[in-house]
Amino acid sequence: MIRYCHTLFLVFFCFSVSAQTITGFKPENTQDQLNLEATFESKLSASNLDTWMQQMAAQPHWVGTDYGRENAEWMVKQFKSWGYDAQIETYQILFPYPKIRELKLVAPTPYKAKLTAVPVDGDSFTAQGAALLPSYNAFSTDGDVEAELVFVNYGVPQDYEELEKLGIDVKGKIVIAKYYGSWRGIKPKLAAEKGAIGCIIYSDPEDDGYVRGDVYPKGAFKNKTGVQRGSVMDMPLYPGDVLTPGIGATKDAKRLDRKEAPTITKIPVLPISYEDAQPLLAALEGPVAPTSWKGGLPITYHIGPGPAKVHLKLEFDWKLTPAHNVIAKLKGSEYPDQWVMRGNHHDAWVHGASDPVSGMVALLEEARVVGALAKSGQRPKRTIVYCGWDAEEPGLIGSTEWVEDHKKELQQKVVAYINTDGNGRGFFNAGGSHSLQAMVQEVASSVTDPQTKVSIKERRIARQLVSGGKDQFELYALGSGSDYTPFIQHAGIASLNIGFGGENAGGEYHTIYDTYPHYKRFKDPEFAYGIALANAAGRIVLRLANADVLPFEFTQWHATVSDYLKEIMDETDKMRKDVEKHNSLVSKNSFELAADPREAFVKPVAKEAIPYLDFSPIQNSLATLKNSIESLSTGSLTDRSKEQLNALNKKLMQTEQVLTDDNGLPRRSWYKHQIYAPGFYTGYGVKTLPAVREAIEQKDWKEAQAEIHKLAVVFDKMNAHINTLIDHTK
């Protein structure tokens, strides 16, 4: 009996030859692949992950440290012993290290912030003293400022809308914002745009401290002195080295003057603990904060401004620092110039046991077993490239510089890039190019969850159903936040980002408490989910490396993109109806009671009408594209030669690039992809069909209509590309 898989032209290869079928494989090759994956899984060892984490997280290893370099050199030796051609590729990047960090409350009562996390009993790594990286935000500008303080909640756009309703202006003030709510770099970015002269970010105990659970060392959550480090580079503009946008930061690269680098913050910004934040917040007066703004400190949260006045002084060394990327290649037996790439970063803000070492050791174990299989005669058909990126933490720098430096070659050779980062106990999470969704669904059905013993796909769907979500497995769209960004959004290479989590909550993120003892107690004690990650990622890599026809699927891709368009159209229609209702009430001189009592006595003013946008160019292009994709799903390729299949695969490899535009997105040309991008004001958070969506959100109707036409052209290009694939299947 024939068993059909997803609607796809690769359906030809999904005939039932056993209890399982695999998209992209001929019937006669399916069982060999299943056997290979079973052997691969059987050889994975959790003890290796444990041993390697102890090695890699033994000392702090942020970019530029000796231990970071030693880790890179150690990984190269490991890869070489497993049969890989491995080397280090080094770039010279700007990395600011703090020279001066001072924060004082100067009124109404003095307080000097400690800015130091304390060691804890039972974790000797937290007592390494001067070896620990001071808490700071990388790519804050230097500054020496003093002003009244204003509490801005999470410091995101809707918080400033709330302040405007209250008549509170942050111009000339220093703001204090909570971590979470958005990526941290958005907070100083918005504050500067609103006229603030400084920004303080603190971790509220409601988000990751004692309100959530016992604090470290008793429990996993942040104690009162813990501080989250992190970059505040304006990555929605471009990631990577701030001085070499668009080109690799090689030794002799042409660099911007630092004063001209647009991704360095416009105002000084400093992260602090909730121990240091409490005196500052307690000194504020003014309106009581809205209920949704209140955190877990034992104080009444006021907004200000003042009478709290603070003095903030920051200075950095702004030196060029070497970033060491590890690149290890296992040459393919049949298609050496088709690369399946797999990466995880190795640098950390301090010890980084969870972020990133937990993901890095899973990658290493995966690579070890793949190498062992190759030595036994089971070499992959395509070249596999394993990467250990440096300088991810300060701004995705190592991976970005490497992609920029090798962009042309990568666009010609790379099949797909699979990324991981920190990992822990819990549910399988996967995001990426939706042309890979069908293949990932199949892999997720093949991997068993260590705790529940059902497939990781079943467990993921069960969680979704409990929370009112869909009863099917889907990839989430990629915004930013890890090393897939330069691959998909700049070079147009199909990418995935996968990992486990959801039952590993804690407060150690980017603090001195992200150590091996913390990870072993609270994250993944037996490294069972590290093995699950290696198993899932390894199967994805092996399927991409060995497929007869690369497993890209376009029916699900089209459905997903069509949903994105519907979202935008529905949101635009709702905006228009809300404005029309408001203006109708204003014209009748009878305003309904406002939802917010503070607005009830404000004289209503008519809002600018929202014009009707013509979405038909995109709708027409997508309709034509749908017909082409359906035509692609007919026929048979089982009798095609190796040369014919190779020609088809080369065309498939170029598909994601068709969805890019050389001019990039408005005001940020580095981001080329027209389907996925980090939001200009969301940071890591994704904006799908970003040029159109953000123009509408900013109420720039002229730009919105222009971007609608531009996006339709992209879909027309995609349609032409699909037709070339059809030609190769005839």
Write the layout of secondary structure elements.
Layout (H helix, E strand, L loop, with lengths): L26 H16 L3 H11 L9 H16 L3 E11 L2 E10 L3 E2 L24 E2 L4 E9 L5 H9 L8 E5 L7 H8 L4 E5 L2 H4 L21 E2 L37 E4 L1 H9 L26 E8 L2 E12 L4 E11 L7 H23 L6 E8 L7 H9 L1 H7 E6 L6 E7 L4 H10 L9 H11 L18 H6 L4 E8 L13 H7 L5 H19 L8 H33 L28 H17 L9 H12 L1 H4 L17 E3 L7 E3 L1 H8 L3 H29 L1
Parallel strand pairs: 4-8, 5-6, 6-7, 7-9, 12-13, 12-14, 14-16
Antiparallel strand pairs: 1-11, 2-3, 2-10, 5-10, 11-13, 15-16, 17-18
Helix pairs in contact: 1-15, 2-8, 8-15, 16-17, 17-21, 18-21, 20-21
Please tell me about this protein's structure.
The chain has 730 residues and is of the alpha/beta class. It folds into 3 domains: 45-94 and 321-437 and 480-546, Aminopeptidase, CATH 3.40.630.10; 98-317, Glucose Oxidase, domain 1; 555-729, Transferrin receptor-like, dimerisation domain (Transcription Elongation Factor S-II, Chain A), CATH 1.20.930.40. The chain contains 21 helices and 18 strands. A 7-stranded mixed β-sheet has the order 1-11-13-12-14-16-15, sandwiched between helices. Helix 18 (642-653) packs antiparallel against helix 21 (701-729). It is globular.
